[in-house]
Specification:
Shape: elongated
CATH class: Few Secondary Structures
CATH architecture: Irregular
Order of helices and strands: HEEHEH
Strand order of the largest sheet: 1-2-3
Radius of gyration: 15 Å
Number of strands: 3
Number of domains: 1
Oligomer: single chain
Distance between the termini: 19 Å
Helix content: 25-40%
Amino acid sequence: MPKIKTRKAAAKRFKITGSGKILARHAGTRHILEWKSRKKKRQYKRAKEISPSDRKRVRAMLPYG
């Protein structure tokens, strides 16, 4: 059987941890940062775990993750 191809766009955006969690960057970090609090901007630096409803779709795009 042939190998399944990885969606390269998804591979650049998501990271799968050793325990199987899928992490992604936060939205809203590109512009209009003056209005956002220091605390919020600091929290944006850390990756967040994606929602359960998105997990199945991301796993399909990253078959060997």
